[in-house]
Amino acid sequence: MFRIDVLTIFPEMFSALEASMVGRARQAGLLDVRVSDIRAYSAAKHKNTDDYPFGGGAGMLMTAQPIADAIKALAPAPYKGLRVLMSPRGQLLTQQLVQKLSQAESLLIVCGRYEGVDERVSQRYIDLELSIGDYVLTGGELPAMVLIDAVARLREGVLGQGQSALEESFTDDHLLEYPQYTRPRVFEGLEVPEVLLGGNHAQIDLWRRRQRLLVTAQRRPDLLPQARLTDEERAWLREQGF
Ligand code: 4FV
Questions:
Q1: What is the rounded radius of gyration, in angstroms, for the C-alpha atoms of the chain?
Q2: In 3-state terms, what secondary structure has residue 242?
Q3: Residues 157-166, buried b or exposed e (16+ Cβ, 10 A)?
Q4: How far is 205 from 201, CA to CA, in rounded Å?
Q5: Is 23 in the pocket of ligand 1 (CB under 6 A)?
Q6: Exposed, middle or buried by CB within 10 Å (0-12, 13-18, 19+), for 223?
Q7: Distance between CA 140 and CA 161 in Å, rounded?
Q8: pLDDT at res. 82
Q9: Which residue, by CA, sits nearest to atom 11 of ligand 1?
């Protein structure tokens, strides 16, 4: 049972996790996602969870006390899992990091709102700040759901039969996935590549590998330096103009 605790001032946003695969994984007892309202831990008179930033500046900041008390209540020391704060200032989430996080004992995820969270929360209670990308959202809830989805699907048994999280974009070879087709063979005049219909699996594997090289070179050349290519593959890419 993989336990994930989520701290947020909008617990109702996480009903989205009831649906689909993550919901089924919860029902199957593979995953235990518990969402807690930070406001419930506020010691302030009106259950406030934000205040003005010292030094001025636009907007409000989430105060440390409610979050700290929630973490102490839900993940008391010595906590064996990882305590994560979703933040644009965090380490960029990649599939490699997702794979590492999916092996943690458990996760506690703090969702910031407003302009962010008082730095002392991170200093004392957070093991890892994580960003889902270089853009600014209104809250950490959607990033938390992205993280939960990406981690949950790597847990044993969460993906349905026959589905695999192994051969995918961004696994350990840093190449984008090959294009995929299903029935009908011709859709609006567009045909499925002949090689995929022939049943010659060596040819299919070669075609798919080369498509991965091509798509990555076209769309994400930044990934190529980390990709492990053979000399033949590098020569083939050069022939394609990359
Ligand atoms: C974010 C991201 C993100 C910033 C202010 C929440 C918002 C507000 N979190 N990856 N990008 N968070 O934009 O993780 O507190």
A1: 22
A2: coil
A3: ebbeeeeebe
A4: 6
A5: no
A6: middle
A7: 32
A8: 98
A9: 88
- Report the alpha-carbon distance of residue 165 to residue 208 in Å, rounded: 17
Q: Show the tokens assigned to 231.
A: 């000399």
Q: How far is the CA of 135 from the centre of ligand 1 (A)?
A: 8
CATH architecture of 2-152: 3-Layer(aba) Sandwich (3.40)
| Residue closest by Cα to atom 2 of ligand 1 | 88
Q: What are the backbone angles phi and psi of residue 236, rounded to the nearest 5°?
A: -60, -45
Give the residue-averaged pLDDT of 230-238: 97
In this predicted structure, what is the pLDDT of residue 64? 98
Q: What is the pLDDT of residue 156?
A: 84
Domain locations along the chain: 2-152, 167-239
How far is ligand 1, taken at its centre, from the CA of residue 100, in Å?
Answer: 21
Q: Are 115 and 58 in contact (CB under 8 A)?
A: yes
Q: What CATH number does the domain located at 167-239 have? A: 1.10.1270.20
Between the CA of 128 and the centroid of ligand 1 the distance, in Å, is 14
Residue 21 has pLDDT above 90, yes or no: no
From the CA of 139, give the closest atom in ligand 1.
6
* pLDDT value, residue 173: 79
pLDDT value for 23: 87
**Ligand 1 atom index nearest CA of 131:** 10
